[in-house]
Amino acid sequence: MESRWIPKMTLFGKRLVLILLCFILIWPLTASVYWLVYKGYTMIDQTKFPELDPAIQSILRTPAEEISEPRKGVALSQAMRNRLEWEMASAFGWSVNDLIISPTRWLDNRNNRQRGTIFATRMLVNFFSTNLAKYGKVDAENSFLKEAREKHFAFSANSWWFPSTEKEYRKGLELLKQYEADVQKENAIYNLRSDDMYNLLMYIIGSQFLDQPLGLLVQADEEVAYRDLDDRIYYTQGVVLVLRDFLRMFAHLYPDINTKGGEDNVRVAFRDMDNICTFDPLIVLRGRHDSIMADHRGKMARYLISIRERINDVAQSIRR
Question: Which of 2, 104, 265, 312 is most buried, by CB atoms within 10 Å?
Fold first, then answer.
């Protein structure tokens, strides 16, 4: 019995060792394959944005004192629409509204980034149209901006046809360009008062704007499904990409923001915006409580909270 039992145990042990080795090796192998596939994808469709778009950089190279007030209005409007235009012209276009049979329909990171992009664009256009494009609160809105914000940018982000989202957003972008052309000719109003600077910054960090993505980031873990974690991260990235373009332009055109608001506040705010714009983990992890795993949603929230606090400090300094 003993001589027969030993070979059987040896065979079982070999199989067990083989199974354990496969189990140990399959995870790094799977991770490596995923990493290679993802890196290949990023060569086609950008997922990190460390640098400002060349269209924004070209304007920032012109000294602020050489830019007339109407031209400043045009530059701010261009910065406001720049990110949405970029997404529309990106490798896979506007993919939020792609049909379920389309492969791009399942690229949820880019889709949620685009949802954040249109949200932030809407919010900035709303403020610009109702505050900066007229002389007083009771004045009528510019007709181009009013139509863009109420009709075209307010359109659903996921309509494939009758009409398509792309068609509506492009109409809104063209209306912004018509407003810009009129401002250049002094046929339209751009009027930024000193109190508008404060009001704009407070609007950005308020309940209607940045509090919206922040709420998605700080919601309790047990209330958020694991599959939704990355959606909230990339939605926030879309919001901040729009905001970074706009605030970089705003701070350049009005240097008092740096001197009165404190250069350190401005520098840290833009540093954390850059951190969000380059945030692209291979796998989004939850990292509950004292877990050894990363808490990617919490890290994104800390960046956003820092941005809000720095912008608030700048706004309060400007008001004094």
Answer: 265
Residue type (1 letter), 262: G
Cβ of 67: how many Cβ atoms within 10 Å? 16
Cβ atoms of 95 and 112 within 8 Å: the answer is no
Q: How many residues does the chain have?
A: 320
* Nearest one of 241, 302, 311, 308 to 277, comparing CA atoms: 241
**Single-letter amino acid, residue 33:** V
Encoded tokens for 78: 């261009």
Name residues whose C-beta falls within 8 Å of residue 266's C-beta, 6 or more positions apart in sequence: 251, 257, 258, 310, 314
Contact predicate 128/252, CB 8 Å:
no
What residue has token string 């256009």? 125
Which residues, at least 6 apart from 225, have a Cβ–Cβ distance to it below 8 Å?
Answer: none
The pair of three-digit structure tokens given for residue 306, joined into one six-digit string: 């820092």
DSSP, res 142: P
Quick one: which of 310, 133, 296 has its CA closest to 204?
A: 310
8 A C-beta contact, residue 236 and residue 213: yes
pTM of the model: 0.91
CA distance 143 to 128: 13
In this predicted model, what pLDDT tens digit does every residue of 112-143 receive, in sequence order?
999 999 999 999 999 999 999 999 888 999 99
Q: Choose among 106, 52, 105: nearest CA to 252.
A: 52
Q: DSSP 3-state assignment of 255?
A: coil
List pLDDT tens digits, range 229-259.
999 999 999 999 999 999 999 999 999 888 8
The one-letter amino acid at 160: W
What tokens does 275 get?
Answer: 């951190």
Count CB-CB contacts under 10 A for residue 313.
18
